[in-house]
Specification:
Keywords: Membrane, Transmembrane, Transmembrane helix. It is built from 9 helices and 17 strands. By secondary structure, it is an alpha+beta fold. The longest helix is centred in the first third of the chain and has 19 residues, at about 45-65.
Length: about 325
């Protein structure tokens, strides 16, 4: 009998190898890598199934006893080789297929995006409500056995609904997995970290660096990334200010403030480079731009030149 190429004989293993590679690359926190991974993830249901298995396997390893992890994850292996070595061991024992049996076909994901200056409210099939912040992208995948919301970019607020069918609800974000426990919460993803703030009830957050799910109660927030899981702390009023159309700044450099105000309002605003390091504090309504900029100019002694489609901030 002639030899059969591995990719043809065991396509599932080739998909798992690709998923493991992406898992490592996503740790680089590179926007181009994030976009490329999303293209791969959406290209085929086999890719999505492989990704879910690799994430589940990683979660199992995180929860394993320290001695077990030490045995499996030898220090001489790099991250991808460690993960694939474990995959090989699991496949050799037949345990992965037993732990994660083949299920129904992957549920199609409905992707929804917002632009600069746009916030959008969605009614979910279970009666919940999802609010998208500006420059956000989410994917909705409600199937017969589970409910999933994919957070690719931006900010969301979720008021979770009660599912009559009892399907579990999970949010898959860049930096971890979130399980709502009958709740309202916000999640913002910036260049480095995710900030989750709970307004009602509680949520559980799982990530690559968390040996167990972290519970975040109402009135608490959690700052985390793929590389580092923080601890619950007191929530801040500014955490969900964007849902009310307010931009809160605390000693923020003017250049960053102008960039955020422009994105939140959808209007073009620029400032003289000499003003970049001025510090801004306060709460500014993004839907009352004239008033907010007038207040800013008064506080920082600036001059505003308004032209069609653009505001210019200049020294007096």
């Amino acid at each position: 009998m002639p030899d059969v190429p591995v990719n043809e004989a065991r396509p599932e293993q080739s998909h798992l190898a690709a998923a493991a590679e992406w898992l490592v690359r996503l740790g680089e926190q590179d926007a181009a890598v994030q976009a490329a991974w999303r293209v791969w993830y959406e290209a085929a249901p086999e890719h999505r199934a492989a990704w879910q298995k690799v994430e589940k396997l990683q979660s199992l390893l995180a929860a394993a006893p320290a001695q077990t992890r030490s045995t499996l994850l030898k220090s001489g292996h790099n991250t991808r080789r460690r993960l694939m070595a474990v995959c090989g061991l699991v496949f050799a024992a037949g345990a992965l297929c037993m732990a994660f049996p083949a299920g129904p076909a992957a549920v199609p994901i409905e992707w929804i995006s917002t632009a600069a200056g746009e916030r959008r409210s969605l009614q979910l099939p279970d009666g919940g409500t999802l609010l998208l912040g500006v420059n956000s992208r989410v994917g909705i995948a409600y199937g017969p056995h589970a409910r999933e919301i994919h957070i690719a970019a931006g900010a969301i607020r979720l008021d979770s609904g009660h599912d009559a069918q009892g399907r579990p609800l999970r949010l898959l974000a860049r930096d971890g997995s979130i399980r709502p426990l009958g709740t309202r919460f916000t999640l913002e993803q910036d260049e480095r970290f995710s900030v989750l703030s709970v307004q009602e009830h509680a949520v559980e957050v799982s990530g690559p660096q968390a040996p167990a799910a972290i519970r975040v109660e109402a009135g608490q927030r959690l700052v985390f990334s793929r590389a580092e899981m923080g601890r619950p702390e007191a929530a801040q009023w500014s955490d969900d200010a964007w849902t009310r159309g307010v931009l809160v700044a605390l000693n923020m450099p003017l250049a960053r403030f102008v960039s955020q105000l422009s994105a939140q309002s959808g209007q073009r605003i620029d400032s003289d480079p000499r003003l970049a390091d001025l510090r801004v504090s306060g709460a500014y309504r993004v839907d009352a731009l004239d008033s907010s900029l007038a207040t800013l100019a008064e506080l920082l002694a600036l001059r505003i030149d308004k032209q069609p489609g653009v505001w210019h901030l200049k020294p007096r």
